[in-house]
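Researcher: Please predict.
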Amino acid sequence: MRSPRGAVAVEFALSAPLILLLLLAGLHFTRALVTRLRLADAVTYAARSGVVAGSTWSEAQVRQAAQTRMGVEAGQCEGGFQLQVAQVPGAFAPNAAFGPLNGRALQVTATCALPGRFQLAAMTLHATAVYPF
């Protein structure tokens, strides 16, 4: 009876690249998911901090809040993450039941370009938060 060691070595040589590719793809998409969640958290926090500041909010304050909340994940984005801050008039209908809202909203949108790794494609992540004030 022959030893199956040669067959096992061939099977391993054929399956190892596929297993390695799946592992690296999993790491790439996990990194993208973590960055996307952090990006969404940063824009939500920044928009809310601007609204809580009331009429005294400034774009610089909102940008600083987003940068602080993004933390080290901002380094994952090529060229840093891009942030747009805008006051949107008429985004919400004024409603006496919700207090003194005047229909305006603060909209914060962030974009992060993740570079491709392990021969996988690059991704562009987006997150937007809108809060009435």
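Model: The mean pLDDT is 83.
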